[in-house]
Fold:
Amino acid sequence: MTIREMVEKREEEYLSPFATLSSRSRGRTVKETECDIRPVFQRDRDRILHSKSFRRLKDKTQVFLTPEGDHYRTRLTHTLEVSQNARTIAKALRLNEDLTEAIALGHDLGHTPFGHAGERALDHCCIEGFKHNEQSVRVVECLEKEGKGLNLTWEVRDGILNHQTHSMPATLEGKTVRLSDKIAYIHHDMDDAIRARVLKEDDIPMELRRTLGFSTTKRLDTMIHDVITNSTGKDEIAMSDEIYEAMLELRRFMFENVYMNPVVKQEETKAEKLVENLYEYYLREYDSIPEEYQFLVREKGVSRDRVVCDYVSSMSDRYAIYVFDSIYMPRSWSL
Structure:
């Protein structure tokens, strides 16, 4: 018996009857020889962790665009916090941690530079539209590894695609990541807003603080405990009505006071214009796009609009600014 088979057997004996077993995955689009050490979801996690798109997340905006302080979240630190929240819940509920972590690490791989400002810009420009969750799946299916993709399992791709509010994953592990994503961004964005002096702790309505806690750490702890308590022994991932309503109210508070705050939003208009200009430039100057993207048009019949979206959305904040500067800003004359 291989190490992988022993791990799979241990999953069958220990995990919840509602967990997704590695041995019963719906598999990959292209069949592969099984690893003798790692079950399928562990291999998926490793592939995502070693991907170029995962590394680029370190220089992509979460809320505060290209912040100068060292302690503001980026898209990478957001991803790691989502993963940690989701793994804590999955471990307590005896769900598949490898699947949970793979989905969490991959859920934002398709995000644009400058966060949702960049996403809005590409969605506005591209005839085919742009959504970061769909782009995350596109990244793992056909953009990574010079167009070969990562060939992830169906369960991981389903969790990545359906991590947003308007859709629902097929597995409890995917549902855990979906809820953990909301819990993570509400809390760390509030922490960053307090750090940026956009908010003060005392600005949060007293009723919400009494229900959820009087610090970001305590509120995070309250929500995670509530998810575990209300999901144990059930084929669902849920919060109590009281905590769920309080979370939604806290989210509304964040939209009104942080996400739509003029101080936070003031640079987003510039970021949207920058992304739109890059999109329009590469649509005109298509031959300047790297060969690995041109290959998709030539060999796979992908539209130029989509490939330009693929390239621009892959950029980090810093690289997008560098490219824009090199294209549009004049240089001093020198011999």
In short: Residues 4 and 35 are 7 Å apart (CA to CA).
